[in-house]
């Protein structure tokens, strides 16, 4: 058998203890810094966000409905600065999307100031639901049997029936759709029109509208649709088991 190699020299016991102590001390410092970083970064982010918000609130150029709420200004106080059309009042905040803000007083019952700060188009408007949130301005009572929503595009799996970037409305549909990836199966649609004969094709019955004529809230929807030689004022509100669709039309200056 070949001879065994000579054993490696061993470090003195005192030196080994010193190195082991330095190793544990290094690990302790590392994990302590890691813990401080985990705690400091979120707190620092929140602090910086609050500082930015405070600076924005103090800016004289701000015009944000959320900040008006933070400052304690009431919605009905805006009527002192802006004139509502005759017979109407301001129903919701200005969400900076060009929508109509005024409505007849009866559609604000029961009176709820908080309701005016609900933006039903929040999470809507992207090129596809996966890029926007998949939300729709559904009209319903709390825990209502069904929901109604304006329809601006064909509805199928992973596609919402309404997109606030569209400028044509095809009608109103009753939907039970709980999420965008489930789609609908033959939803009921109500399509307002001035045509003498029904328009069967989906694209043919689309009526253009201006964003400034559209009013959307959790309990009431209104739009002014342009049709052949006139326009249709379509409204939508809801009860527990059904919805109401009052409409009025005007052709060539005649109601």
TrEMBL record:
Keywords of this entry? Membrane, Transmembrane, Transmembrane helix
Q: Which residues cross the membrane?
A: 21-43
Question: Could you tell me which InterPro entries the record lists for this protein?
Answer: GH-type_carb-bd, GH92_N, PNGase
- Write down the superkingdom of origin: Eukaryota
Give any GO molecular function from the UniProt entry: peptide-N4-(N-acetyl-beta-glucosaminyl)asparagine amidase activity
User: Is Transferase a UniProt keyword of this protein?
Assistant: no
Q: Name one GO cellular component term.
A: nucleus
Keyword field contains Transmembrane helix = yes
According to the entry, every stretch annotated as the Glycosyl hydrolase family 92 N-terminal domain falls at 117-239
What Pfam families does its record include? Glyco_hydro_92N
Give any single GO term for biological process. glycoprotein catabolic process
Q: Which PANTHER family match?
A: PEPTIDE N-GLYCANASE PNGASE -RELATED, PUTATIVE-RELATED
Q: What is this protein called?
A: Glycosyl hydrolase family 92 N-terminal domain-containing protein
Protein source organism: Cryptococcus amylolentus CBS 6273
């Amino acid at each position: 058998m070949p001879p065994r190699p000579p054993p490696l020299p061993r470090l003195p016991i005192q030196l080994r203890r010193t190195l082991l102590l330095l190793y544990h001390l290094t690990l302790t410092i590392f994990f302590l810094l890691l813990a401080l970083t985990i705690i400091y970064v979120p707190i620092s982010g929140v602090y910086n966000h609050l500082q930015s918000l405070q600076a924005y609130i103090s800016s004289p150029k701000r015009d944000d409905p959320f900040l008006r709420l933070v400052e304690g200004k009431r919605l009905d106080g805006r009527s002192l600065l802006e004139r509502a059309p005759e017979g109407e009042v301001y129903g919701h905040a200005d969400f900076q999307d060009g929508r109509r803000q005024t409505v007849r007083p009866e559609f604000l019952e029961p009176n709820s100031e908080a309701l005016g700060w609900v933006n039903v188009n929040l999470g809507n408007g992207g090129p596809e639901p996966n890029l926007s949130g998949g939300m729709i301005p559904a009209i319903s009572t709390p825990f209502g049997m069904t929901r109604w929503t304006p329809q601006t595009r064909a509805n199928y799996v992973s596609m919402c029936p309404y997109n606030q970037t569209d400028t044509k409305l095809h009608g109103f549909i009753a939907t039970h759709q709980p999420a965008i990836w489930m789609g609908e199966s033959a939803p009921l649609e109500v399509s307002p029109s001035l045509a003498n004969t029904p328009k069967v094709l989906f694209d043919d019955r689309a009526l253009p509208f201006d964003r400034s004529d559209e009013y959307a809230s959790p309990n009431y929807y209104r739009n002014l649709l342009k049709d052949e030689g006139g326009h249709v004022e379509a409204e939508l509100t809801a009860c527990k088991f059904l919805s109401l669709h009052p409409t009025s039309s005007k052709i060539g200056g005649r109601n």
